[in-house]
Protein: Glutamate--tRNA ligase
Amino acid sequence: MSVFRFAPSPTGFLHLGNARTLMLNALLARKSGGRMILRLDDTDVARVREEYAEAVRDDLAWLGVAVDAEYRQSERAALYSAAFERLREAGRLYPAYETEEELDLGRRLARASGRPPVYDRRALTLTKERRAALEAQGRRPHWRFRLSDGRIGWKDGVRGPQEIDLASLSDPIVARDDGGFLYVFTSVVDDADLGVTDVVRGEDHVTNTAVQLDLFAALGAPPPAFAHHNLLTTADGAGLSKREGSLSLGSLREQGVEALAVAAYATLIGSSEAVRPVADLEELAGLIDLGKLSRSPARVDPEELSALSAKTVHGLAYHAVAPRLEALGVGGGAAFWETVRGNLARLDEAADWWRIATAPLGTVPAAHEDAALLAEAAASLPSEPWDERTWKTWTSALSSATGRKGRGLFAPLRLALTGEPHGPELARLLPFIGRARALERLHRST
Ligand code: GLU
Structure:
């Protein structure tokens, strides 16, 4: 069985780019009948906050992603220690004592002399005496994984065959001097332990994959299939960041952007599939194919997203929105929803139309030349029960009586009945307004 996972670090709020990673994994899991795991990569104790972990769960729920299991790396230290010991016994780990400043200086010197800023494995040449001297000064080692020599390759689900020369990379630090383990290592231990078969993540992880494939090999674990999707950028081409909130999922939710539109937008832009509204995640899953993703970054256009959101709302079925309408105090069942949905930019505007139809309206000034028409309209209002044909019966008679037709007939009626110059089809809205309110509104406007 396929096992996919979404593995955010709860060090900030998820953004649209994270939604791309999430939805690709969740929908591919769904499509293949596989499992979907949420793993919180919370090893960076200095930056992790519980509030971010909770926001991740809220975002998943909002997007309609249900996971089969959730893990937190902070609860799995025993597993990492065991894997660490195995690598150490196999001679693949070595202690190093450089401070951040020393490492930074090394990188700058390398760059200045035209060499790649790769760690020079200086710590491998430390003598026992030198180590003892460093420890006597109070220095604690961090631990590096000695990468294999040569090149490593994989068949990437998006990018095709990849090959990276391991000599171009620094031996990764797997444990800090305080004993904490680092993501590049813990992720491999977890993916192996949880039987992850597919890792779909952003292009920014391509070099990590080379390192991690070497770690899988050193641990004797079969690696998952890797696929690296193109990244999303802001309109001016900057990368999205968890720290800068504009395209965070929480802020999109607050702006009333529809979750299904976010899911569709996040997965369809930057692919050969046209950005389009979908009726549900099932339909979206049918459009997802890693082979269709482009290799270059995709720019997010907030206006395109809003437009998609409105179109998505227009297509939402009543059963998909009923609980939300109820929470907004919108009644009228499927008939009301179908009457107004095509006029909404955001779903919560349905409450405005419900209020317009069923609550007292403010004053609506009628143009003087319409007073006679509205008086006649009030006098000829059919008796109830009303249905969608009432409007036609009423306005046809009114047209014959007054000689008005088209805009000249409908615009004043609309304004008097709803207080708005535009809106849902009146034939469908009228039964919700009902005779008593209609009569009162027409009288008030004359
Ligand atoms: N915690 C990593 C991140 O948020 C996970 C990357 C991965 O999918 O392995 O970038």
About this structure: Residues 318-358 form one domain.
